[in-house]
Amino acid sequence: MLVFILNAGSSSLKYQLMNPVTAETLAAGICERIGLDGVLKHEFGDDRELKMDVDMPTHKEAIESVLRTLTSGEGKVIDSTDEIEAIGHRAVHGGEKFSASVLVTDEVINEMKDLIPLAPLHNPANIMGMEICRELMPGKPNVAVFDTAFHQTMPDYAYMYALPYDQYAKHKIRKYGFHGTSHYFVSNEARKMLDKKHNTRIIVCHLGNGSSVSAVQNGECIDTSMGLTPVQGLMMGTRAGDIGAGALQYMMRQENLTIDDALNVLNKKSGILGISGKSSDLREVLEGMQNGDDRCRLAVDMVAYNIKKYVGSYVAALDGIDALCFTGGIGENAALIREKVCAGLDAMGLVIDPVKNNKRSKEARDIATNGSASRIFVIPTNEEFVIANDTFKIVSEMKK
Predict the structure, then answer these.
(1) Which of 79, 82, 114, 147 is catalytic?
(2) pTM of the predicted model, to two decimals?
(3) Residue 338 and residue 215 share a domain
(4) Do 74 and 141 have their domain in common?
C-alpha cells in the first residue's frame, strides 16, 4: 500500500509518499510560501532533489503541484495517483474527542472545526488539506492522525489546571500535550531496545524548534510538558515555555501590550531567540557561546536546565526510570545539551558515556555507560511512519 502523507500548515505543506509495510519512502518534500510566490522542494530516488518555483495561490494548487510532480517529469516516482491507496493527515489538535486516529468523514471534519478555538493556527490548515484531498482524489480514504491523541491517557490529576473547575467543564481548559506521534514512536522504539514491553518507565525528550517531554509508563503517557497550547513547558526556539502569569501581566502593563501582543512575544520572540538575541537555531547559539557570547551561554544553560528539571520531576512521577530518550533535531544532534541534561543524574541511575555521546550516528543508539542502571537512548523520530502505519491499519480494517 502506498500512503500519501500530508502535513498542511498555514502557508506551507509537507508531504511524503511511503509504503508503511516496508517503511520505504519513495519521495518527500515541502511546498513553501503558499499564497505568495510558491516554492516546491522535492526529494526522491537516491538523494536526488528538485527545487521549483510554482504558482501556488492556495493549498489546492500546492497539492495539485505535488501530485503532478509525483506522477510526471523529472521527479516522477509513480505512474498515476491511482497507485496511492490512502492519504494520512497530521492533525494538530483533537481535544478530548479524538483519542486515536480516525477515518476522515464529514462528521469528523465538523468536529475538528468545533476544536478550532483550541488550535486556531493549525486546525484550519489541517482541515483544508483533508477537504482538498477528498476533492482531488475522490473515493480514496483519508485518515486523521492527531498530535494530542497519545497524551489522552494522562490521569485527570496530571492534565487538569488548578483553575475554577467550571473553566474545564464549560471550555475544556486543560493540558492536552503535543508531538504525540513522536513520543509514541520513540517510546515504543525504546521498549524494543530495552527488550521489555511490561513495567516500563520511559521519558522522551522531543527537542527541536518546538520541544516537549513526556513520561510514558507501560506504553501510555502519564504526563507531558506542553499544555492547552504548545507554548507551555520547555524553553524552545522562539517560545517562552513556563512563565508565571504575574510576570506576563507585569510585562503587558510595562510595555502597554494587548493580550495578542503578549502572546506574540511568548510564541515568536522569546525562548532561545529572546535570550540569546542571536538566533532561534541552537546551532548558531552554540557557535556564539564557543566564541564567548555570554547571552548565548545563558540560553544554552537555560535550555539544558529546563529539560533537566522536567526529567527529574518525571522520574518522580514514574517512580523510577528504565530509559531516558532524546529525539528531534536538537535531541539527536546536540551532544552538549544531552551531556548537560544528564550531568548529576547518577543518583537516578542515569550515567552518560562521553565517548558514546559524542559519536555521531543516524541510527538509534545507547549512550549510557555499561554500568548505568538505566539506559540513555538517542532515537531518530519518524512521525511520518506513525501516520502511514495508522492509515494502513484503519484502511485495512475497512477492507475486511
Answers:
(1) 147
(2) 0.94
(3) yes
(4) yes
